[in-house]
Amino acid sequence: MKNLFLFTAASAFSGLVTASEPIEVTNNRELFYDDYLIAERKNLDFQLHYPVEQRALPGKPCGHYGAIVKANGKYLFYYRGFDNIYKGKRSNGNPGEFLAVAESPDGLNWSDPPYDKFPAAPVPRGTIFYGNGFTHNFAPFYDTNPSCPDDERFKAVSGVRETQGLFAFYSRDGINWKHYNEKKPIFQYTPAQYGGHMLDSQNVVFYSEYEKCYVMYLRVWKTADDLTGLRSFAKSVSKDFKNWSEPELLTVNHPQEHLYVSTLVPYPRAPQYYIGMPTRYFGNRGSATDVTLIFSRHGKGIQRPFPGVWIKPGLEPERWQNRSNYMAWQIIEYSPEEIIFYHGPKNLMYRLRTDGFVSVSAGSETGTLLTKVLNRQHGNLELNLSTSAGGSFALEVCDELGNAVEGYTFADFGEFYGDRIAFVPQWKDKKFSDLPPGKFRLRMKLKECDIFSITFK
Predict the structure, then answer these.
(1) Adjacent-strand bridge partners of 281
(2) By C-alpha distance, which of 315, 216, 231, 325 is closest to 279?
(3) CA-CA distance, 20 to 36, in Å (whole number)?
(4) Which residues pair with 136 in a beta bridge?
(5) Strand, helix or coil at 162?
(6) pLDDT at res. 19
(7) Which pLDDT does position 96 carry in this prediction?
(8) pTM above 0.90, yes or no
(9) Measured by CB atoms within 10 angstroms of the end CB, which terminus of the chain is less buried, N or C?
(10) How far apart are CA 133 and CA 189, in angstroms?
(11) How far apart are CA 188 and CA 159, in angstroms?
């Protein structure tokens, strides 16, 4: 859907600006959802963009706490369900609960896998766990740690109150799983310490290429603000996947707000950013749910620049029922122009412009932006941006004090209008990569323009 532009006037430029400690920029992509790179801006605001919802192709799995893993040239979609015998008796560790997986070559077309581990049971083909406590919130991922043995490339955590803790698993193929230690959980079920019932929703875990360790966001009932009794999540890290740090309580909930599942995951194009789509839960409204959007830069805390809803329940009455809206964990890079992700319980897919969660945005009045002092060793400049037919974008390179560099001024740049995922600017016959390494700033002029991300390739 098209967003209305919003405007916030910031302090105007005042000539020379004081130099500051430079931010090192590499080939890591930076997303524009806050002022992390920005020193000054005028007539610009941050604009939230909404994904396009559509029906997924037939065969897409449907079930709570879905998780998607990309490995060995295909996608695996893990999902939870109940057989027809125990469908009306849902609880953690229910004997009729199953964990199944479907496969896809492209992230769009899903089918049952070519194996059937429980042929006599009333469960779908592709079921890998059936009738035990580890079916409820099994959270797998593919381990990219360079030191990981091939037999352990697939890892997972699972466990609830009935199992008395969260256990670690490993697999070579993502289908046949083993415990690291079937008698000792990596986290004991200790609700008193973390504010109440813990672990019993999706506890996501991944290897962070940025932090160089395993990262887990696990379910608790307490926040860093000591708001006991609110569903939330905490962070723990590990070097070996077996020994974990004491969970760090986070500041993410608003007063009286319950958040199920973080779904935080490294963004494929910028792994120093973790992006999550938590489910907001409203027990006083028939346990209705919707989805909000969060970020974590460099794994430090949680940023929530738009604290309201990102994905509404919509017109379908079933999505207003008890706990009906959860996003499947993981973001799929479907094409250079588009990312996709899925609703877990429903047959829905969401499409979003690449990097298109939030932009720094200008309306019909020209806005200006000056970055903080940046420092680079090499690389060309690339921006993901979009203007209207009547909009425009202009760029100049400045020194530390904000003075335009000769040959890289607005006059040398001219004006750009259009829509590019990977726009490489030029100043007459010059490119950014022609400049020597060192400290610099960028000054931009925007009119009816959105900038989503920037990188130095």
Answers:
(1) 258, 289
(2) 325
(3) 13
(4) none
(5) helix
(6) 46
(7) 84
(8) yes
(9) N
(10) 13
(11) 10
CA dihedral for 251, 254, 256, 262, sign (positive or negative): negative
Q: Are 90 and 82 in contact (CB under 8 A)?
A: yes
H/E element, 366: none
Rounded Cα–Cα distance for residues 77 and 422 (Å) = 30
How many CB atoms are located within 10 Å of the residue 150 CB? 6
For residue 88, pLDDT beyond 60: no
Residue type, 57: L
Q: What is the dihedral of CA 217, 221, 224, 226, to 10 degrees?
A: -170
Give the CA count within 13 Å in the CB-facing half-sphere of 331: 26
Q: Which two tokens stand for residue 213?
A: 């360790």
Among 77, 71, 73, CA closest to 57: 77
Cα separations (Å) of 197 from 40, 191, 216, 222, 408? 45, 5, 18, 10, 58
CA angle 355, 356, 359 (to 5 degrees): 105
Is-contact 198 173, C-beta < 8 A?
A: no
% of the chain beyond a pLDDT of 70: 94
User: Are 59 and 110 contacting, i.e. CB atoms less than 8 angstroms apart?
Assistant: yes
C-alpha pair distances (Å), 376 with each of 20, 34, 408, 427, 439: 15, 21, 17, 19, 7
Q: Which two tokens stand for residue 384?
A: 């993901």
Distance CA 236, CA 244 (A): 6
Do 372 and 18 touch, CB atoms closer than 8 A? no
* Residue 404: DSSP 8-state: B
Q: Which of 105, 97, 110 is nearest to 138 (CA)?
A: 97
Backbone CA torsion sign across 389, 391, 395, 400: negative
Q: Compute φ and ψ for 393, nearest 5 degrees.
A: -140, 140
Strand partners, 456: 381
Reading the block at residue 135, the tokens are 């079916």
